Amino acid sequence: MEEKTTDQELARRALAGEASAFEEIVIRYQQAVFGVVFRLLRNQEEAEDIAQESFIKCYQNLDKFDQQRPFAPWICRIAGNLALSRLRQLKRRRFLPWEQVSFEVADLTAADPAEALEKNEIKQKVADCIKQLKPLDQLVVFLRYYKEFSYDEIAYILQTRRNNVEVRLHRARKKLHRIFEENQEVERCSPAGK
Amino acid sequence: MLTCREVEGLLDLYLDQELDTLTSERCAQHLRRCSRCRALLQSKEEEAELIRGCFPSPQPPPDFSKGVMAKLSARKQESQAPRSNILRRFRVTPLIAAAMLIFVFFEAYSTGHLPFSTQGKQEIIREPYIQDDAASDYNTQLQNGMSDADSLDSGTNSKSLSSPTPDFTPGYLPQGFIQENGSVAGSPGGEEQEESVDYTYRNPQTGASINIQITRVASGATATNEERATEAADVSFFAEKDGRHYLIRISGDISSEELKKIASSLK
Asked: What is the interface pTM, i.e. ipTM, of the complex?
């Protein structure tokens, strides 16, 4: 079985001028980068633009990438930086776009559609709760739960202290936990829960 | 041994594998013995799973990577654009250099510094203190093959070279006087023949003028001749330069002391 080319190898090849190697990097990290940027900007168009800029900046600074370190935090840090700069610009202009995001929460193929629907309700609540988090808190949750970055990596990406990451995560978890508790309360009270 | 309260506070970090090895091990020991904390851990794991599963995950467009590569390519071309501007500037530079070369060449040509330049011969016409007829005479002299040594002046500056007489520019002039013009008269055909150059200096404010007439005379002429100063407003004397003899006559609307000063500065 063919082994997956490492990020470092791709970076080296991209530095040597191999465009396809850089395109592979883009494909590999587009979701992570887009996710980071979207958490902060919350607008598809803005996020697309800044995500593209992040990769361009990544390409321009590829020679500065320390190949002894993982690539993902580095590219996410670039994306976070650009998104935060953009966010500050937008705030200065008193314009912060906010888009509703549709979620793929309905599982129509489930064996028990009623149970699936109930789960979907919880999911929707959690998703709504996540959306209501402050952009940076939401980003920290995203980086932790979705991208499974360590606290240190998140601190590196957001250029903050590890302690700050812990505080943000704790705050977000508390809010989310409240939803779970409420839901459990509803389950206990409902006939199905008995 | 950690208490339930302590473990409860560490569960998130335990789940995230962010505890140091020792604390993590102590947590694990507690969890093995405490069913309540285990249930709490399980609840947190479910929450985490739910968060992961329902995390709003907007996706980049399907052609995102193509868009990045296209944008990157466009940026590369843009970054090369200033270089092409520089190249364009370099393209302009030879034109400037060529224009400068033409200018320098023209200047050299017009001042007679080029061997094939004819302008130098004509420059004498442009000399403000040399009249045209004298210039044509001098041109004739040049055309007749008269060498510099044969000419009246073998000095080094262009004015002296083009002038039929040596440079008798006064070292002193009363304040406010500026040179107005010069004229050459007589024929430079032979050494014994007389020729003269008149220099006029004028004070534009007062209208007063000073005239210096330099006349080449026969070698036998001396200061004892009648040409000696006869009027108070005139100072005349003989001078010898480069083996040739000249009668210098200075006159003007100034005091005789000033005239003498001018004469001294000429000597």
From this structure: 0.74
